[in-house]
Amino acid sequence: VGSDYFQAVGVRDRLISRLRAAHPDYDFVIVPTVPLGECGADHMARQFDHVGTFAVRYETLRDVAIDLGAAIARKGFQNIFLIHFHGCPLHQEALTEAAAFVSERYKVRMVNLTTTVARASEGFFNPKVLDQHFGKGWEEKIGFEGHAGAAETATNLFLRGDRGKTEYKRLTPFIAKDVREFFRTYEREGWRGYWGD
Predict the structure, then answer these.
(1) Which of the listed residues 39, 50, 100, 116 has the most CB atoms within 10 Å of its CB?
(2) 115: which strand partners?
């Protein structure tokens, strides 16, 4: 619970810190985090009673992003970054659509930064990077790398430092050997909201 949220906040804070150092003449304003997402791990697993996600419809997410982006633009801000860490395609598309609408309507630059970076780097989890850190054949050991698995846990530990809890070390791996098995999670017992090790 909160894996995507914590990653988004961590990435946002590090990005703003670097931008402030590079552009001391700019004013940066951080809007409170909006914990909304379209789809979620429980939807992908077809385990709808799992506590991990409280999803909203595509249109709701898009419209909230449009309304907030418009409010920020009307206050005179010219550059607006949307930062999230949610991998569902429709979630990403809703925020991209909202950014395009606000940019055109208000003549500002609103960018769905996370999705832009993810598309440029072959997705959130670049296979070359995973090979480098987990070794060749990591898929056999940890399975399909999904929500709150090894890569996301490592990212959260890096971003959150010692604030992260260590229960992950005692959790039983939930292996889905490939995407097909990932989408058939509902047929198995014992899913606890994560895939992998």
Answers:
(1) 39
(2) none
**Cα separation, 41 vs 148, whole angstroms:** 9
- Alpha-carbon distance 12 to 155, whole Å? 13
Phi/psi at 38 (5° precision)? -95, 125
- List helix spans (H) across 23-112: 41-45, 58-74, 89-106
137 Cβ contact list (under 8 Å, min separation 6): none
Single-letter amino acid, residue 117: V
Residues 73 and 102: their CA atoms lie apart, in Å, by 8
Separation CA 120–CA 72 (nearest Å) = 27
Is the distance from CB of 192 to CB of 171 less than 8 angstroms?
yes
Distance of alpha carbon 4 from alpha carbon 124, whole angstroms: 11
E-state strands within the chain: 79-82, 109-112
Residue 107 — left, alpha, or beta (φ > 0 → left; ψ -120 to 50 → alpha)?
A: left
Tracing tokens 């090894």 back to the chain, one arrives at 150
At 138, list the tokens. 């990591």
The CA-based angle 95-99-103, given to 5 degrees, is 175
